[in-house]
């Protein structure tokens, strides 16, 4: 809270506004952590629904766990879509609803998002994914023991319940390209629905749009790499599987598959989508593509000088008339 010296000279109205916003010390602390916390919670919700449904559907396919299946590919796509929509909904009004390092980096590269906030956002996103995956693992721990054997953890095996691993026929280039396409579709949709000159939308409608694009990507491109599209949603659960006993193979699989497919693939797709949208459609001045050139800056500053001169001339004429 402000000291006595800091309060001196403050008007009643300004102090009322201050104490309304910060009624106690925790409110002051919360002001600094709200955006990172919103990103963390947004990704937590995404991964809780996503990894939760994958575990349920996969484990229920084993008759030792349950005699009847509990979901299918449509269940997986729908739950991931719901998780993404709710994650955006809870965070959009506070942090912008990135819940994805690709969106954060693209916003910094093209839209003026402060670079100093990028590491904080990404750390929060990965932490949220890690905690969510840990919660899901704790919930399905005994069912995983039934499937693999008590204390046995294999890669891909049940590690694939938390973060996808590609099938053997997929080449490295194919994996990269698959994730490139998925991320391109997701990110360009985000920029479309948040463009104020392309039909401005509310946070609720943004969440619905994200739901539809995630379900659509999963239904169209989810077969081969599991439509990762989000490095945080891969790295967080991958770290979790490493810490609970799946070993270093979660990182060494297919010559660091996680690095060149689930990190670089989505990042390349998102950057390409942002560059194309800003070059071809977006007109906002916050984009680096639309920054005025030197000639434009000189011309745009000229009218104000002309207006000042015109005003001065009119005033002088009026005085002469009097």
Automatic annotation (TrEMBL):
Keywords per UniProt: Membrane, Repeat, Transmembrane, Transmembrane helix, Transport
Molecular functions (GO terms): glycerol channel activity; water channel activity
Protein name according to UniProt: Aquaporin
A single GO cellular-component term on record: plasma membrane
Membrane topology term: Multi-pass membrane protein
Taxonomy of the source species: Eukaryota, Fungi, Dikarya, Basidiomycota, Agaricomycotina
Segments passing through the bilayer: 40-59, 79-110, 122-140, 171-193, 205-229, 257-277
InterPro entries with a match to the protein in the record: Aquaporin-like, MIP, MIP/Aquaporin
Keyword Nucleotidyltransferase: no
SUPFAM superfamilies: Aquaporin-like
Protein family: Belongs to the MIP/aquaporin (TC 1.A.8) family.
